[in-house]
Amino acid sequence: MSRHSSHASIRLVASWLFVGATLLIAHPAFAAGPRADYVEIASWDTGYQAQYTVANDGPGTISAWTVAFDLPANNTISSSWDSALTRSGTHLVFTNATWNGDLPPGAQTSFGFVVAGLTRPTNCRINGGPCDTLPALTERLPPVPRSAPGPGDRVHQRREHGIVACNDPRSRRSGSGTRGRRARRRPRYPRSSFSAT
């Protein structure tokens, strides 16, 4: 093989390696970056509370994040926290607060909101890319009826273990003292047929 042909082969291989590396970096399937997971905390007859967890899957540090999604105009945000909210028609944009924008690789933060309405967010995007969302809590567990919170209120989910305890017959025998347990019968002694003289 001549010297010119070997040099041409080396240049060809180098070109293919360069093109492959460029495609690997630019292709979205290999890009990690930020991720936003949706979870529903609670729901009631007229609305619900939800939150997004924003995580940085690397490789670099995120200095700011923006989560945007759509809601119908008749669904309003009665309160939100740990983010700054702007709305234009049916499009809502949540940007990081001053204290939770910087996320090194592996770090995460969250923000929440209360919706007056029953429609869930659609077309979610984080920093321009798609959100990887978790299924809503109401799809896994039946909603617990409760009254709607007032403006500015947060709703904290309470585990309904008490319902199971009330239906469990073992709970009737729990507790201290004689309450909740079967009373012991006193033994009956026959009356003496002898009388004192």
Number of strands: 9
- Rg, Å, rounded: 32 Å
Reading side by side through the largest sheet, how are the strands ordered?
5-6-3-8-9
Q: Classify the oligomer.
A: single chain
The structure class reads: alpha+beta
Helix content: 10-25%
Total DSSP helices: 3
Order of helices and strands: HEEEEEEEEEHH
Strand and helix layout:
Layout: H1 3-26, E1 34-44, E2 47-56, E3 66-70, E4 76-81, E5 83-88, E6 91-96, E7 108-116, E8 122-126, E9 129-130, H2 137-140, H3 161-167
Antiparallel strand pairs: 1-2, 2-7, 3-6, 3-8, 4-7, 5-6, 8-9
Describe the structure.
The structure is a single chain. This protein has 197 residues and is an alpha+beta fold. Helix content is 18%, strand content 30%. It has helices spanning 3-26, 137-140, 161-167, and strands spanning 34-44, 47-56, 66-70, 76-81, 83-88, 91-96, 108-116, 122-126, 129-130. The strands form two sheets. A five-stranded antiparallel β-sheet has the order 5-6-3-8-9, with no helix packed on it. A hairpin with a 2-residue loop joins β5 and β6 (91-96). The termini are far apart. The model is unreliable at 19-30, 135-141 and 158-178 (pLDDT under 50).
Kindly list the characteristics that best describe this protein.
197 residues; alpha+beta; 3 helices
